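In this supplementary section we document a worked example of the pipeline. Step one takes a protein sequence of length 145 as its only input; no multiple sequence alignment statistics are reported here. Step two produces a three-dimensional model, which step three serialises into structure tokens for compact storage. The input and output of this example are shown verbatim.
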Amino acid sequence: MTTVPFTPVGIDHVVFVVDDMQRALDFYQDVLGCRPGYSYPALGMEQVWFGSALIVLWDITHPGAASAVPPVAGGRNVDHVCLAVSPFDHDQLRSHLKAHNVEIYREAFHGGARGMGYSFYLLDPFGNRLEIKGPAEYPDGRAQP
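The serialised model returned by step three reads:
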């Protein structure tokens, strides 16, 4: 195994291309609870905090985003991003998403970086796939400390 000259820390940020910045901000702040982050108006870019990571929203309709426009219309280069969250009530999450007209297209219980836990999959308004993943749980249902 090769020695790497750094220590992995975690995900710093994810960049999503969007075509309506206000709609993107409304979704990420109102539906997912993100806080405003750094702003780059000359680039048509806004960043929002999701816990300690940033989600970067880059508006491809803005002249400063020419380098972000995908070479193929509708092309994808990311399958989904998993957003780790605190323990939550599944019915409350379902109700919250429904109140914002956000459809859950899949629910699952599987592994992730923090262990086995429940996941809810949804799309943001631009077709980006998001996985909302709760903390790891023991087989008897207790939350992992």
